[in-house]
Structure formats: structure tokens, C-alpha cells
Give the backbone structure.
Amino acid sequence: MLPFGLIDILPPSTAFHIGPVSIDFYGIGYALALVVGVLVASRQARLRREDPDHIGNGIIFVFVLGLIGARVYHLIDQWNTLYASDPIKAILPPYTGLAIYGGIIGGLVGVVIYTRRHHLSFLRWADIAVPAVFLGQAIARWGNFFNQELYGPPTNLPWGIAIDCSRRVAEYSCSLYPPNTGFQPLFFYESVLDLAGALVALWISRHIADRLRDGDLFSFWFIWYGAVRAWLETFRLGYDWTFFGVPVAIIVGIAGILFGVVTIAIRHRGSGPSTADLDRLREDEHPSPPSGVATGAHEHTPA
């Protein structure tokens, strides 16, 4: 009999095969996150009177750099556990190990390079991307469910999930915790909090744009996501990458919060145009939104 609070599902990591090639749910999640992210970011660009074609033109470049960053961070974080005894695994497929912090760092580098190359405002486009990034993270996190990753300690809560013995960290091995043990679904918590972050970012951008400066939503992402990750990482075990015994993932999360708070404070020290002012300026420059968007699409109104 299963204990109260166990969702007894051990999902396969592979969705289907095309000849010798296996298509994993993890990859499908990332692909879906990418599609949704492009759609949301393109709409945000139109509302801000920016050319949404930049989203389609730059997304592959940004996505590739994000994947590289995610892989490198994962290799550093899990080197002793997964790769030290067999380093060739680090460069051979399947490439299922990806770390969100590395992906964000790589993606940011991509956005900086693209905006500089095309003489665009990095902060303005970073703000445009924030709701899409949150939604993409919320979707992609479900890949961890199918890979049975990102789980926390044992629990009897109704949403506790089963973890196969082969996927458990040593501290939660089946010799210590029986197969019918439920674990905290940290991936689910992050997914829900990322979705909430997207909704808050959209609300802020619609309702208090007259009090924002370009870059504030970008800073908000660091505060929100830094807090989410720093909190969730306290539940995890099996870290390799630590600094004086503290997981680097927690340190990065706290640093993100500080970065977000400080940059907002600096940005608002003096006078300057608000995000809504710049949006209205763009609207005057481009009465017809780029790519044929209807004139009524702009949602900011003069104060």
C-alpha cells in the first residue's frame, strides 16, 4: 500500500523514437517553451512599438548560447558526481544535463551581442523578454518531472512524487527510503512561481509603466527568480559546486536579488523618462505598429 501523499507516477524520459533518434520529453519541453516565449515576446514588442522581427531573427542565436551556458554550468556543478569517473560522457550525447543559471547567463550574453550589433536598447529589449522568459521557464521545468530531477526531501503531502531508485541522490537511496516514498516536487513549485512571476511582470508593465524606467522589469526578474531559486535550493541535496560549504546556486540567487534591488535604486536616483514616456515617444515615431499590428494594440495611456 502506498503512503498518503504519493503520486505514484514514474514517467519515461523518452517520448518517442524517429529511427535511431530518441525524442525526450525534456527536449520537447524546451521546444514548447521556446515557441511560447517567441509568441509572448513578439506581442510585447508590438505593444512597445518595437519591431517583433528582432525576436525571430535573434532567438536562435540567443537560444544556442543559452544551451551552451546551461551545459557548461551543469558540467561544473555535477562534475564529481556524474563525469569525473568517465569524462567522455561530458561531450557525448545524450545531452540531458542543463542548468537554468547557465542558460540564463548564456542567453543574456546572446541578447547583449544581438542588441549591440543592431544598435538596440538592451534594457528595453530585456524588459520585453521578461514575461516570455518567465513563461518559458514555467514550461521547461516540467522536463525535470520526466527526468525525475529537481526534487526535495521525503514528504507525505498529497502532491509528493515517486522517484525511481536509480534517479535518487545517495542521501535518499532506496536502502534508506523505500520505493513508495514520496518527495517534494521542487520542479512544480518553481513552475508555479515562474508562472506567477510572468503574471506579475505583465501586470506591472500594463498598470504602472509611468513609474518604471527601462530595465526595471529586467531587475524584477533577478529579484523574483533569485528569491525563488535561493529558497528552493535549500531543499536540495547532492551538490558538487559549493563555496565554503554553501551551494553556489543559493549564492547566485542571493546575488541576483541584490543586483535587482541595487540596479532599480540606481536607475531611479535622478530624473529621467519613464517606460511609458519612451513608449509614447515610440508611438509618435511609429503611428502604425511594426509588422502590421492594429493601431489599438498599444495599451499605455498618457498619465
Notes: Residues 117 and 259 are 25 Å apart (CA to CA). Residues 53-77 form the longest helix (25 residues). The radius of gyration is 21 Å.
